[in-house]
Design goal:
Blueprint (H helix, E strand, L loop, with lengths): L1 H7 L3 H35 L3 E6 L2 E6 L8 E5 L7 E13 L1 H4 L5 E2 L17 E2 L4 E13 L5 H8 L9 H30 L4 H15 L4 H18 L2 E3 L3 H6 L4 E4 L11 E7 L2 E5 L10 E3 L2 E2 L5 H12 L4 E5 L2 E5 L2 H12 L4 H7 L2 E5 L7 E8 L2 E8 L1 H6 L1 E6 L2 E4 L2 H16 L3 E9 L6 H4 L3 E10 L4 H12 L3 E5 L4 H11 L6 E4 H5 L3 H7 L3 E5 L3 H13 L4 E5 L5 H6 L2 E5 L5 H6 L2 E3 L4 H41 L8 H11 L2 H6 L23 H27 L4 H22 L7 H4 L5 H19 L1 H7 L6 H34 L3
Parallel strand pairs: 9-23, 9-26, 19-22, 23-25, 24-25, 26-27, 27-28
Antiparallel strand pairs: 1-2, 1-3, 3-7, 4-5, 4-6, 4-7, 8-28, 10-11, 10-22, 11-12, 12-13, 14-15, 16-17, 17-18, 18-21, 19-20, 21-22
């Protein structure tokens, strides 16, 4: 409108300049929106589901989008079916088809033709994309992918449905519309006042429209989306994959993190910490699967070639199905982690599994069962056949008649048995999982059952999944941030409590088992839920009860899970966190966030990023609104008291382009403030415009308005023409706003505490805006359209000092606020 009005009155140069500036603003807005969309698309690609498929005669994992009809896929419990497929193999296979057919219970699937033309729910030989395997395993031939699947046909009907905005975007949209309406009204009022004071109507209309364009926060939705998307992308580098942008803003409000134990708070690497042999407890150092560590007894080093120690370790390696392998520089276990721990501790003593397996080949086996609680193997060596057994300590002890001690075998006594059981009890008290080990030389005629009788007791091995060091630090960060951490696990209560104490998670709070939780009414649980720090032996239903109880107390809950049965609790929590390594497809689908390293510390890192993102949106708004309100205030007061217009229409538009563009965008990706994890969580209903924010914002706006108007009046009073006064005011206002961008990096911390150079993008944005400003001053062809002139040295000193003054004033305001806060804290209550 301003451009068209300029054309009507013959101001063609001004019309062209307005057109170019508005075009640049539109391009900048487009780039911001485009970057936001690309960032979101990148996140969608990262969170794409995987499929296990046969390619080039090998079983590999590929993104589900790469499947094609004719592929052979493999399915197991917990998988999300990646494509409509015809079953080739089905072993106790069941699928949850409720999302597609509404069937309330999982459907049994079978191989073979189905007669007739049955409806979807009766096609037992077909699995459908988007449904979940709840039990069993199988393989299938892909027959339809993407939009040709049954789900794809439904998706085709839904393509016109628009994406929902996040609650923050809805809230800011409302703010934007209110601000836009207010700015338009004030701009119209200022233009009307100018007309009433005798200024040309068309000139005031153009000027009023330009002021409205500058004042309305048109970049607000783009900045919010970019902040959320870039923040989510940044989280990926910290091992947290955000599946829904809404989760980013909710993360900043989390007050309780309910975390699984195994693999999240612990390393998920069973490690032998203590052995019992020759009547003494032996400590073992080292964690994880790397075969490095030392042995000691009573604080004194113990040589690993001691006969009783080697006999015990020898037994553990041979009665074993796990293997220790090295991939590149990483050691890992193939097989059961408990058995793997025995292989690793033997390797620490120099016993190589490959050599022992070659010299003592297995010739018989009695497998482990839950009824027997032990496993026995028979191997053949140079001295003949020998049976080796491991299992529950009391079961192994009951099968023994002799004991290996003092370098030889002797009859086991009642005192020996009591000491062994006491040692097992001590190990269990340290939350170690204890195994008994025994052996028996065979004569050659014994049956498998006879091989397990009258054995020789070799010793005990106590192992545990050790806590992650980084989890211990992360829990401290949570404590400092006012976030409650609690463990919620299916493991035994004793084990859970020991790990929780070692992590510093269980302090003065309570530990509840699932059965104890069942005995509590909802009212009783509500009374104690904030004191409970460990939940052990819990079911998915228990997890949901805990989420409900915490929610009733006003908490924002993040809940972790990995199994199919965890999906309801993840869906129920405010933030559902799935495990990326051990988690199932169903769990990941139900989650808001996926941990790519299954590490508790990554949840805390994501919370920090979430707080930082909300803080950056607040910084952007403080900067934008203080500058825009300051401009409007200066213009309004000037017209009200009868002064000439402090800025021309094109100058107002240029200020908007120079300051609301690059610097504002840089504030949207500002690094988090240093104490961001030492503040209490933000309330879910707490808005951006808290009282401190409004005071800071109002003070900045008032100072910008007063200084801008003051410089304009000073310029007029020193004999400068109206156009020169406008030129000096134009430069001063830009400098004020650029300096104010640095102020906006924190509402309470000094700029010099945060660091002037910690946001290089802001420095680059300010430099770019200054370069644009210098161009319209020193390029002759641009001076007339923008009503500028070559400033003298004095003019530059005035402009720079006036601009820098906002740093001084805001720093003083922050200092006073900090001193008042300290006085309140120090005041006796």
């Amino acid at each position: 409108f301003a451009m068209l009005l300029s054309v009507v009155v013959g101001e063609y140069t001004e019309a062209l300049v307005i057109f170019v500036i508005v075009l640049f603003i539109a391009i900048l807005g487009f780039i911001q929106e485009y970057r936001a969309e690309r960032a979101v698309d990148a996140l969608k690609k990262l969170s794409a589901p995987l499929a296990s498929v046969m390619r080039d005669s090998e079983r590999v994992e590929v993104p589900a989008r790469e499947l094609a009809p004719g592929d052979i896929i493999f399915l197991q419990a917990g998988d999300r079916v990646p494509a409509d497929s015809l079953l080739m193999e089905a072993v106790n296979l069941r699928a949850d088809e409720a999302p597609l057919t509404g069937e309330s219970v999982p459907v049994e699937k079978k191989v073979g033709a189905v007669p007739g033309a049955p409806p979807l729910g009766d096609r037992r030989n077909t699995v459908y994309m988007g449904t979940a395997v709840t039990y069993g395993r199988g393989s299938a031939l892909v027959v339809a992918t993407g939009m040709t699947t049954e789900f794809g046909k439904i998706a085709g009907m839904l393509q016109q449905v628009e994406d929902k905005q996040t609650p923050l975007q809805v809230n800011l949209d409302r703010i934007g519309k209110w601000l836009g309406s207010a700015c338009l009204a004030i701009s119209a009022l200022v233009a009307l006042l100018g007309i009433l004071r005798g200024r040309p109507t068309l000139e005031m209309l153009i000027w009023g429209i330009s002021l409205a364009v500058a004042a309305v926060p048109e970049a607000l939705p783009a900045i919010v989306t970019i902040s959320l998307a870039i923040g989510a992308t940044r989280m990926v580098k910290r091992h947290a994959l955000i599946r829904k942008l809404t989760a980013v803003e909710t993360l900043g409000s989390v007050t309780v993190i309910c975390s699984d134990k195994t693999g999240t708070l612990t390393q998920d690497k069973m490690t032998v910490r203590q052995l019992y042999a020759n009547g003494q407890l032996i400590d073992v150092s080292g964690t994880g699967y790397e075969p490095r560590g030392h042995f000691s007894a009573g604080g004194q080093p113990l040589k690993p070639d001691e006969a009783h120690l080697r006999t015990l370790l020898f037994t553990g390696v041979l009665c074993n199905d796990a293997r220790l392998v090295k991939d590149n520089d990483t050691w890992r276990i193939k097989g059961d982690p408990t058995e793997g721990a025995l292989v690793v501790v033997a390797a620490k003593a120099g016993l190589k599994q490959e050599d022992l397996a070659a010299n003592y080949p297995r010739v018989g086996e009695v497998p482990f069962s839950s009824e027997r609680k032990k496993m026995t193997v028979i191997v053949k060596g140079q001295a003949g056949r020998t049976a080796y057994s491991k299992g529950a300590p009391e079961v192994i002890l009951d099968s023994c008649r002799r004991i290996y001690q003092g370098g030889g075998e002797r009859e086991i006594t009642g005192k020996d048995r009591a000491e062994i059981l006491e040692a097992a009890h001590q190990m269990a008290g340290r939350a170690l999982r204890v195994l008994g080990l025994a052996y028996k030389p065979l004569l050659g005629t014994e049956t498998d059952n006879e091989a397990e009788r009258d054995m020789v007791f070799a010793g005990l091995a106590g192992m545990i999944d050790p806590p992650r060091e980084e989890a211990r630090e992360a829990i401290k960060s949570c404590d400092a941030a006012g976030i409650k951490s609690c463990m919620i696990t299916g493991d035994h209560k004793l084990t859970a409590m020991a790990i929780a104490r070692e992590l510093g998670l269980l302090k003065d709070g309570l530990a509840l088992s699932g059965s104890e939780l069942d005995d509590l009414s909802d009212e009783d649980l509500d009374r104690i839920v904030e004191k409970v720090e460990v939940y052990a032996r819990v079911s998915p239903a228990h997890k949901m009860r805990v989420v409900d109880a915490l929610s009733r107390k006003g908490h924002v809950v993040a809940m972790t899970g990995d199994g199919v049965n965890d999906a309801p609790a993840l869906k129920k929590a405010h933030i559902g966190v799935a495990m990326g390594i051990t988690g199932t497809d169903v769990t990941r689908e139900a989650s808001d966030m996926v941990l790519t390293d299954d590490n508790f510390a990554s949840i805390v890192a994501a919370v920090e990023e979430g707080r930082g993102i909300f803080g950056n949106i607040k910084k952007y708004l403080m900067f934008l609104l203080s500058c825009n309100l300051g401009e409007i205030l200066a213009m309004f007061v000037a017209v009200l008291i009868g002064l000439p217009l402090p800025l021309a229409a094109v100058q107002i538009l240029f200020v908007n382009l120079a300051t609301d563009g690059l610097p504002a965008l840089a504030l949207g990706i500002d690094p988090p403030e240093p104490d961001i994890m030492k503040r209490p969580p933000r309330g879910r209903k707490e808005g951006i415009f808290t009282r401190p924010v409004l005071w800071t914002l109002g003070g900045m706006a008032l100072w910008i308005g007063l200084v801008t108007l003051g410089v304009f009046i000073w310029a007029l009073n020193t004999g400068k023409s109206t156009e020169e006064a406008q030129g000096l005011t134009f430069v001063t206002l830009i400098l004020l706003e650029l300096f104010n961008a640095f102020n906006s990096r924190s509402e309470k911390h000094s700029l010099f505490t945060i660091g002037l150079f910690t946001n290089r993008w802001l420095l680059a944005g300010v430099a770019g805006s200054l370069a644009m400003t210098l161009a319209v001053i020193y390029i002759p062809a641009l001076r007339e359209p923008f009503h500028t002139y070559v400033l003298s040295g004095t003019d530059w000193i005035i402009a720079v000092l006036a601009g820098f003054s906002i740093i001084v004033v805001v720093e003083l305001g922050k200092l006073i606020a900090r001193l008042r806060a300290r006085a309140v804290i120090a005041r006796p209550h």
